[in-house]
Inverse folding.
């Protein structure tokens, strides 16, 4: 590490910095949120990236993007890769210009995936792939007009998958927000993307900054620098917001919320059941947590106590 990292090292310690330098983060979607997270992770010492985006940066993007007018016409993944290398020339950055559907192979050696795509449909596809691969994923959402946002890290078969989580948060828990208006986070348009009015850069980056911090914490899991969080979901407000019906949160506050796995979830519930029955057939009916973990279907079960 060069002198460039002296201050980060003083803050997080040489051991953590060394760990982060060896970690690979995939960011799928390099828009406002994903671009900010990728560059911020690089500035915090994460050494390896896989960046996937199909889009080209337009002039209209630069008031809400880490890349400025110099990058107009660039693929967004390539623009963010350039920004990362200008912060940390030693970083290894692989870019894929295209849709994630054509690039699943690039996730093989990744430590965590940042699902920063607009499309809820694509997030659900990413969720299924991550469960298959046993890959942790970070999902953040910014609410309409940037009034707030939320973040969750999904650990495969350890807590909810994104489908259970999204069912609970988007349809149930957050019922109303803003000046007496209905929750419109879930206004999903024909293209499968959130149709909500975007917030200002500062509203997006507040959520993305917290997301970055929580990703770093997740990457340090297993080390003394890792801090257990109070719950799996953080909801951040930028303005007055009803997170729970009848309970108004002040601007610039945050609330932790534990979202449980839905045992009947069509995505993780069924797969977990199938995995268990497959093991029962093959192994005379005796199943231990270690068996489940070894099956690859429940990779994280054995790490449940790792926080301690
Ligand atoms: Zn699920």
């Amino acid at each position: 590490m060069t002198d460039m990292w002296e201050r980060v090292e003083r803050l997080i310690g040489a051991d953590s910095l060394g760990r982060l330098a060896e970690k690979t983060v995939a960011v799928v979607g390099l828009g406002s949120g994903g671009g900010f997270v990728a560059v911020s992770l690089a500035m915090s010492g994460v050494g390896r990236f896989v960046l996937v985006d199909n889009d080209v940066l337009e002039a209209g993007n630069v008031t809400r993007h880490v890349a400025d007018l110099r990058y107009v016409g660039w693929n967004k993944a390539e623009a963010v890769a350039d920004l990362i290398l200008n912060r940390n020339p030693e970083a290894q950055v692989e870019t894929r210009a295209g849709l994630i559907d054509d690039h699943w192979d690039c996730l093989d050696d990744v430590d965590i995936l940042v699902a920063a795509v607009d499309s809820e449909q694509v997030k659900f596809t990413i969720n299924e792939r991550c469960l298959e691969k046993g890959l942790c994923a970070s999902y953040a959402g910014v609410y309409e007009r940037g009034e707030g946002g939320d973040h969750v890290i999904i650990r495969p078969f350890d807590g909810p998958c994104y489908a259970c989580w999204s069912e609970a948060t988007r349809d149930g828990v957050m019922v109303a927000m803003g000046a007496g208006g209905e929750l419109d986070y879930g206004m999903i348009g024909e293209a499968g993307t959130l149709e909500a009015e975007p917030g200002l850069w500062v509203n997006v980056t507040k959520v993305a900054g917290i997301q970055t911090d929580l990703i770093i914490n997740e990457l340090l899991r297993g080390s003394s620098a890792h801090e257990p969080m109070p719950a799996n979901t953080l909801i951040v407000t930028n303005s007055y917001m009803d997170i729970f019906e009848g309970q108004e949160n002040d601007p610039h506050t945050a609330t932790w919320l534990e979202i449980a796995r839905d045992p009947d979830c069509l995505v993780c519930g069924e797969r977990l059941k199938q995995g268990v029955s497959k093991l029962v057939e093959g192994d005379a009916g005796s199943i231990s947590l270690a068996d489940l973990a070894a099956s690859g279907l429940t990779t994280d079960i054995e790490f449940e106590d790792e926080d301690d």
Residues 172-187, 279-308 have pLDDT under 50 and may be disordered. The domain at 3-263 is CATH 3.40.50.720 (Rossmann fold).
